[in-house]
Structure formats: C-alpha cells, structure tokens
Amino acid sequence: MDSVNTGGAADGGRAAAGEGGPSWRGAGAVLLPAGVMLALGLWGLDRGGMWRDEAVTFQVARRSVPQIWRLLHGVDAVHGLYYLLLHAVLAVRPGETVLRLPSVGAAALATALVAALGARLARPRVGLWAGLLYAVTPLVGHYAQEGRSYALVCAGAAGAALLLVRALDGRPWWPYGVVLALTCLLHELAVLLVLAHAVTLLHARVGARTWARWGAAAGAAVLALSPLALVSRAQAGQVAWLPRPDTGTAERLLHAFLGTDGPVFWTCLPLALAALPGPRRLTLTAVALPWAVLPPLALLTVSQLRPMYDDRYVLYALAGVPLLVAAGADRLLGGRSPLVPLVGTLAVALAFTHHLPLYREDRTLRGRPDTFAAVSALAAREVRPGDAVVFLPSIGRRAKVARPEGFRTARDVALTASGPASGTLYGRERGAAELRRELLALDRLWVLAEPYALRSRWYPRNPTERVKLAVVTEEFVPGGPGRVFVRDGVTLGLYIRRPAAAEPPPAAPPVPPRPRTR
C-alpha cells in the first residue's frame, strides 16, 4: 500500500509530542468547536427579512423541479444543485429561518472537520484551537446565516481535505472523489481545490501510484463538473458586473480571513507565518497553506483578464487559515502542560469578544446590503390598489420577489408572465411597442428604479428597458415634493404625466386705424 506518513505539522506528530491522549480528548476537540459554531449560527437566525440573494433562493427553491430545471438552462446553473436541495428542505416548511438552517448545519460540520484535521495531523489542542478560531471568524458567521450555498461549499472543501488525508494514509480514494465532485457541483469555482491538493501531494513527496489514484479521483470530479461548466459559461453575463480585483481586494480578503484590523489580525498573522517552515511530508501546514492561498490567488490572477472574483467564491479557502494559526501557536507554545490548551482557548475567546460588535450588527437587517423591508412597507403605505408600477430595469422586480406583501394590490404594468411561468428569475415583460402604448395610456405611474437607472449616462441595450426609460423621463415628471423616496438602495417615486405645453394666447383683433385729424 502506497501510504504516506501523516506526522504532525507542529511537533513532528502526536507520538513525538507525547500527546496521543485518550480518545475523549480528540472527540472533545472536535465537538466543542462544532457546538460553538452551531450556537453562533442559531443566534439571531431570524432577522425579520431576506436580502435579495436569499430572496432568489427562496422563490426558486419553492418552484417545482421541472420549473427549476427550466430556469437553470437560462440563469443560475451554478446554483442548481443548491436550489434542488433547498427545494426538498422548504417542502417541509417554507420560511426564512428554515431557509438558513442548512447553512447553519454546514458551518457546524465544517468547523468539526477543521478541528478533526488539526487533531489528526497535529494533536487535539491544535484541532481545538483551529476549530474555535474558525467558528468565531466573522466572515464564517456571516455566511452561516445566509440562505446561499457558500457554507455548504466550505463543509465540502473541509470534508474533501480530510478524506484526502485519509486516502494518503491508505484508505479508499472514491469517498474523496465523490465529496470533491459534490463540492464543485455546489459551486464550480471550488474546482480550484484541485490545485491546492496537487501542491499538498507534491510537498508530501508521494509515489507514482498515489499520484495515479489521486489523478483518477480528482479527474472524475472535474469530469462530473464539465457539463455544468459548459452551461454556466454561456451564462457568464450574470457576473459581468464584477470589477477587476486590485491590491486592495487582496488586502481586504487577507483581513477577512485573519481578522479585522487590530489585535486579532496582528496576532494571527505572525502565528500563521510561524507554522510555515516544515519538513517535506504530509503535515498540517502542507494541507492548510495551499488550501488557504492557491484558490484565492488563482481566481485573483484569472480575474485580471476576465473578472469573476468575489470573496464569497473563495470562502472555502478560509478554513486553511485557522489551521495555520493553530499550528503556529502550538509550535511557539510547545510543552505538555494541561494549561496550554486552556491558554489558547482563552485567546480565541478574547478574539470573539473583539468581534462581538460585528456579530451583533450582522444579526440585524443592517448586516445585509438590502432586505427591501423598508421599500415594501413604503409601497404598502403609498401605492393605491390598482396603481401601475414599473420596475426600471426589470431586475428591480427583486424587491417585489423579496417582499411581495407591499406590491400585492399594485399592477405590474410591464409583466406578462411570472418567473416560474416564464422560466426566468423575474418574469417576462411586454415588447417595447406594446409597453409604450400601455405607459402612454396612464396618468400616474409608480417607478421603482435601481440607483443608476435614472442617471443620464445609463443607456440600456434591451428595447423594453429603453422604452421604460424614455417614457418615464420624457412623458412623466415626479409627482411633487415628498413623492419620491429612497429606501434599501432603490428609488420608489410617483410620476405623473407631464403637463401639455401651454398654448399661446389668441392674437388680439387688429385695431382699426384712427381717423386722421387735421
């Protein structure tokens, strides 16, 4: 069997450190961080509103499976597996809290797997510290309460890393390949894990047989991803809004992974660096460093040519950072005193108290970009039953999708078919000529516009959007002071028909000439 020595990263293995310990110690090192993550994930889970991406998940996952399948041929193919999973979850009980529960569970699972990696490749206290640090990282807590796929991708990445280590220790390779494939299907950019795992094998100096087995497992995962990659490539316009990343982007990611500015960041950074020198074998550093660095670095590099970078797309790489920090702390502290694990645990607790204000804000509606709660309440108060509403552009209809209660009595003048019926996210709208006739027949119109939509420089390519913009700006005027509102990053305003130009007064009748007098 072509297995690899999985000696510890910090002190040359548990045997060398003399910390094999009873089995309950290793179990506690895994279960305690998972319990902390679960508690943090459940804390404030019901924020009283969904932001736009969660609203998309909620409305898509409640469609029938054929409707979801039809949608994925046009948009959001990258989230298809997640939508199908949430379809089954929301079939039990649809609701905001239930929508987020899979992410909470996935975050707790990821935490347990991070701790298990640290305990397996180093010793229990390293796993304990790494798991706790992962659990209290604000970015992890943010996505643990998000109704999107990113927490599940993190759990898959951690599971793939642990299964890779087990396979290198002589276990079967197929579980690694299956978990890696599922992780990539949850989000295709998780395929960058393959680069990280290849570097891990290179550092461990594995033999040709191991390379062949890993190549077969990883290749099968990539092959399973290829149909999704082909479909999503045709949908690349969905991320056309992403800017080209710069050095500031990389700096923000570094702080998000290691902690915000301040003592947490400047404590974690040198500890992570302290873990870097290591022997050429399968160590904790050999697993964690490529995992933390290569996926973000690869995506940042590719995005210089074709922007597709967002922090959440490489969130799964964050798990490598607490493993490095814990390994570095273990190397510097050394010793077998039972107080050492307690010291590290107290240090993580201090880091949590430092981040506590961020956690509290994240559990309110202010913690998300837009929940549309305020604009929905405003529409419910201001829009009369039967009033016409137009969304400029049509993506603005996400406010109605997220919080439909405010728009139930309004007439969506441009809409001809709903999202589920049309196989789209936000529905199908009338053609340009038909919509122009509809709009010109109105005397008053509510316009819900994205921030850029009413700017003079915006010129939409879609003919229907051009008609909306032209008619609103040329044929209508704002309904007066106090009738245009800005809420949740969008503008909701009442517009009335522009008064006709006043006709010139009739010409005065000619004045007869006065008789001449001498």
Shape: elongated
Sheet bearing the most strands, described? 6 strands, mixed
Low-pLDDT segments: 8-21, 510-518
Number of helices: 22
Nearest-integer average pLDDT: 88
Q: What is the terminal separation in angstroms?
A: 136 Å
- Classify the helix fraction into a percent range: 55-70%
Broad structural category:
alpha/beta
As a percent range, the share of strand residues is: 5-15%
Tally of strands: 8
Which sequence of SSEs, written as H and E, runs from N to C?
HHHHHHHHHHHHHHHHHHEHEEHEHEHEEE
What is the radius of gyration? 29 Å
In brief, what are we looking at here?
The chain is an alpha/beta fold and 518 residues long.
Report on the structure:
With 518 residues, the protein is of the alpha/beta class. Helix content is 57%, strand content 6%. The strands form 2 sheets. Strands 1, 2, 5, 6, 7 and 8 form a 6-stranded mixed β-sheet that branches. A two-stranded antiparallel sheet has the order 3-4. Strand 7 and strand 8 form a beta hairpin. Helix 6 (96-121) packs parallel to helix 9, helix 10 packs parallel to helix 12 and helix 15 (284-302) packs antiparallel against helix 16. The longest helix is centred in the N-terminal third of the chain and has 26 residues, at 96-121. The radius of gyration is 29 Å and the shape is elongated. The N and C termini lie far apart (136 Å). Mean pLDDT is 88; it is low at 8-21 and 510-518.
